[in-house]
Each structure stands twice: as structure tokens, then as C-alpha cells.
Design brief:
globular, binds pyridoxal-5'-phosphate
Length: about 400
């Protein structure tokens, strides 16, 4: 699989980097890089507005990309696929249009989880400040799982929105999003699922899940940076106002008033990231060709090897313990070793991991630590990568103690 990724060839003069920072961003397969090159060589034109052939080709390719994303997520319609610059923008879009629409008001409550990424905290805090609503945070259990019982107690007729990740990017814990959604629906709340750490690792079925919004970033699923998708239920999107004004999102503009375009264009003001969106669909096709069940099984074996190996290292705390084998990432904490020192030494041994708070400062505060060292796997990692990472970690810890 590594052969599909030129990033690894370019290091042919070195023993080869062990890239375990996939939760931050993934490397890109050759087909994605070729699609990017081909677009700018052969199909580059603005969409929707041109009478000429290349503009028509670009428009068709852009809409075909939308249609592919729609199938990938099992959406009801491609009108539900809003191209964004990433997961962060998708969540901000949802939060802002809910505020603008008056669907969240003073005294209402929004529920998030302790292990949320800042991008699934701050947009809701901003919404709460704007309308006078209250942010409620579901605690973690002792084994760092989502506390479903505390969540159930928190739900009430005041709950307007529940926004949770499928997988926590700092802990690797998978949240019971199916049950979280079902319980939220019993009180009539809207549900936003942050799929940033899930889409590259497990199949998504937004209709089966029953949520209202689902956001992810393209660059974490082998696609380009600056791309992403917010899926929203069609009837809900129809009822909500636009958020950014400009070209393409309009139906008719006069100086007196503007009427808005139909879905999905109502939410896509200005020239979209035409090439990026088309190439994102190419990345999703690549993932489907390899097959999510095959990816899942491969990553499960790697995670088993990684987590058991880390648990064997003296003094290493694996956050969430053996639970972590069920996602694609794991975080460790070593009381007398600073995560940054460990990450720096691992880098010197050609092992790339991420250290720090992982954009989860409130989680780190609740754990009483400043950060962790995070290892995250992807399609191209091998058992040998994990052996090298474990041996480098052992060596680095011995040097730092
Ligand atoms: C769980 C989760 N949500 C949201 C994001 C934000 O993604 P982006 O920075 O690509 O918008 C990330 C990025 O690490 C993440 O891991």
C-alpha cells in the first residue's frame, strides 16, 4: 500500500519515515496527486457561470464529486452535501445558521463531550454567547469513555443541539454515537456528528445514524487540505437561512433585497474549491477501492500490536487502556517524561508522532496533564512501522528517565 503514496518514495535515501501522525493529516495517494495535476492541466475553469466547454466540464466534474460524496455518506440526496474548507468550517456553518435561524434561544442548552476538539467546542460557545444559551459538557467515566448515564440525565426539553465526535482525537475513544443520537431524538434535539477521526476508518451511513449534521475534513481521508463536507438533512437545510453572502448562493439580487439559490448552492457563496472538491472525491474513491472493511481489519491488527506494545513499556500510561485498540489512534502519558521531549527524540529516530494538547485543552485540564504523545495509524502503515515505533519509544524513554 505504501507504494501508492509518493511521500514514502521521496525518502528512499533514508531508512524511511515511520509516519504515525495520521490523525493530524494523512499522506496522499498517487491517484489523488494525479487528479490534482490533471484538473489544472485540462479542466480548469470556473463552475456554473461559463458558456464554454471547459466550464461545463469543470461544473460536471464538481457536481459528480458531490454525487460521489453523497453515496459515500449514504446521504438521501446530493443537495445535502455542502462543500466546506474542512470539519471546522462545517461545524461553524451549522452553529451559525442555527443561531441566525432562531432555533437556539436564550435558556436553551447545547450538549458537547469532555473530549471534544476545540472546533466542536468554540463554535457552540460563540453561539451560546450570541443567543444566551447554555453549554453543557458530558463527563467521562473512570475509563475515559463517554458517560452515557450522565448524558441521559442532562437531556431535557431544553436541549436543542447535541454535538459529539465519533472518535476522540486525543484519546482514541469511540463514542456510542448511535445511542447518543437516539437519546437526543427522544427529546427533539438536533444532532451534529464530528466525523473527522472516523471517515477514513469506518463506513458512515448518515441516514442510518439518524443525525442532522455530519462534518469531516478531506485531508484526514487522503484528500487535499482546505476541503471538507458538511452533510445536513435536506428538510432542515431548506428551513435554515444562508450564512455567507456572495455569488452563487443567490437566486436574484436587487439593491432592495436578495432571494437565495436552492440547495446546496445556498450554502456555497463564491467560487468553491473546485479542484479540491473534485480531488476529495478521488480520495474517497481510493478508499472505497481498498475497501473500508479491509482498512478496518488492517488498522485493527496494527492497533492491537501498538497498544499491547505500549502497555508493556514500564511506566507508560495508555490513556483509556485496552479500549484504545478499537480506533485508529492512541495517546500515552509518562509521568516523569515531557511529551514534547519524547516527540523530539522519536523524530530524531525518524518516527513522526504528535505531542501536545491536540486541540483539546479542556480535556487535558480535566485529566490534570498538559498533553500526551499520540500515535495514529492509516492504510499504509505496516507491522514493521509499529515495531520501529515501539523500539524507538522504549529507547527514548530510557534516555529521558
Ligand atoms: C475530532 C476532530 N474534529 C475536528 C477537527 C478539525 O479538523 P480541521 O482542522 O481539518 O478542520 C479535528 C482535527 O484534528 C479533529 O480531530
Amino acid at each position: 500500500m505504501k507504494d501508492d503514496f509518493p511521500f514514502f518514495d521521496s525518502r528512499a535515501d533514508e531508512p524511511g519515515v515511520v509516519y504515525l501522525d495520521n490523525a493530524a493529516t494523512t499522506q496522499k495517494p498517487r491517484c489523488v496527486l494525479e487528479a490534482l495535476h490533471n484538473f489544472y492541466c485540462h479542466t480548469n475553469a470556473n463552475v456554473h457561470r461559463g458558456a464554454h466547454r471547459t466550464s461545463r466540464l469543470a461544473t460536471e466534474a464538481h457536481e459528480a464529486a458531490r454525487s460521489y460524496v453523497s453515496q459515500f455518506l449514504h446521504a438521501f440526496s446530493e443537495k445535502e452535501i455542502l462543500f466546506t474548507s474542512g470539519c471546522t468550517e462545517g461545524i461553524n456553518l451549522a452553529a451559525q445558521v442555527l443561531a441566525l435561524s432562531g432555533r437556539v434561544r436564550e435558556g436553551d442548552e447545547i450538549i458537547i463531550s469532555t473530549d471534544a476538539h476545540h472546533s466542536n467546542i468554540v463554535p457552540w460557545q460563540m453561539l451560546c454567547e450570541r443567543v444566551g444559551a447554555m453549554l453543557r459538557v458530558v463527563p467521562l467515566t473512570a475509563d475515559l469513555s463517554f458517560d452515557t448515564s450522565a448524558y441521559t440525565d442532562m437531556l431535557s426539553e431544553r436541549t436543542r443541539v447535541v454535538a459529539v465526535p465519533v472518535v476522540s482525537n486525543a484519546l482514541g475513544v469511540r463514542l456510542p454515537v448511535e445511542e447518543i443520537t437516539r437519546l437526543a431524538k427522544e427529546v427533539g434535539a438536533l444532532v451534529l456528528i464530528d466525523g473527522a477521526q472516523a471517515v477514513a476508518h469506518e463506513a458512515v451511513d448518515v441516514q442510518g445514524l439518524g443525525c442532522d449534521f455530519f462534518a469531516f475534513s478531506g485531508h484526514k481521508i487522503y484528500g487535499p487540505t482546505g476541503t471538507g463536507v458538511l452533510w445536513g438533512r435536506e428538510d432542515l437545510l431548506e428551513s435554515l437561512p444562508p450564512w455567507k453572502g456572495g455569488g452563487e448562493m443567490i437566486s436574484e439580487v436587487t439593491f432592495a433585497r436578495t432571494t437565495y439559490n436552492k440547495l446546496p448552492f445556498k450554502y456555497e457563496a463564491g467560487t468553491p474549491n473546485i479542484c479540491g472538491d473534485i480531488v476529495l472525491a478521488e480520495a474517497l474513491r481510493y478508499v472505497q477501492r481498498v475497501g473500508l472493511p479491509a482498512i478496518h481489519n488492517h488498522e485493527k491488527d496494527l492497533m492491537h500490536q501498538l497498544v499491547t506494545g505500549l502497555l508493556d513499556l514500564p511506566g507508560v500510561q495508555v490513556l483509556g487502556g485496552e479500549n484504545q485498540q478499537h480506533s485508529s489512534l492512541v495517546s500515552i502519558h509518562i509521568p516523569e517524561v515531557h511529551h514534547y521531549d519524547l516527540g523530539t527524540l522519536l523524530d530524531q529516530m525518524n518516527v513522526a508522532v504528535r505531542t501536545g494538547h491536540h486541540c483539546c485543552q479542556p480535556l487535558m485540564q480535566s485529566l490534570g496533564i498538559t498533553g500526551t504523545t499520540r500515535y495514529s495509524v492509516a492504510i499504509y502503515n505496516t507491522a514493521e512501522d509499529i515495531c520501529r515505533a515501539l523500539s524507538a519509544t522504549r529507547q527514548a524513554i530510557n534516555m529521558l528517565r
